[in-house]
Amino acid sequence: MQLVHRRHFPVEHFVLIDEEEHLAPDALVALARRKAERLARAVTGDSRKFTLIHNGDGLARRMHPHVHIVCAHSRWQKALIYLLIGLKNLLPADHDAREA
């Protein structure tokens, strides 16, 4: 299991990656939620200010199951990260491999 910090100003964005692929999807989301609550408390001061985006096998660009954890102070910041993730998904799939 790996937690990657991908800060996109002004939003704190993390990705929890199940590299060993040993967790069921429900267990991965439950673990991500626990981590998100701690991260949100540290980043925003409120353990409820987070959004989870679980990528199912059919939609993921990464080869391993993963969950995006977005810690935002406001709805517009949450909207910003959705926009950034959406724009990234418009890039060719091999673009991610070059970034790694």
Radius of gyration: 13 Å
Tell me about the biggest sheet? 4 strands, antiparallel
If strands are numbered along the chain, what order do they take across the biggest sheet?
Answer: 1-2-4-3
Mean pLDDT: 82
Secondary-structure element pattern, one letter each: EEHEEHH
What is the helix fraction of residues, given as a range?
40-55%
Describe the structure.
This protein is of the alpha+beta class. It has 3 helices and 4 strands; from the N terminus they run E-E-H-E-E-H-H. The chain has one domain. A 4-stranded antiparallel β-sheet has the order 1-2-4-3, covered by helices on one side. The radius of gyration is 13 Å and the shape is globular. The relative contact order is 0.19.
Keywords:
single chain; 100 residues; alpha+beta; 4-stranded antiparallel beta sheet; 3 helices; 40% helix; disordered C terminus
How would you summarize what this structure contains?
The chain has 100 residues and is α+β, with helices and mostly antiparallel strands. It has helices at 25-44, 75-88, 94-99, and strands spanning 2-5, 12-17, 50-55, 66-71.
SSE layout and pairing:
Elements: E1 2-5, E2 12-17, H1 25-44, E3 50-55, E4 66-71, H2 75-88, H3 94-99
Antiparallel strand pairs: 1-2, 2-4, 3-4
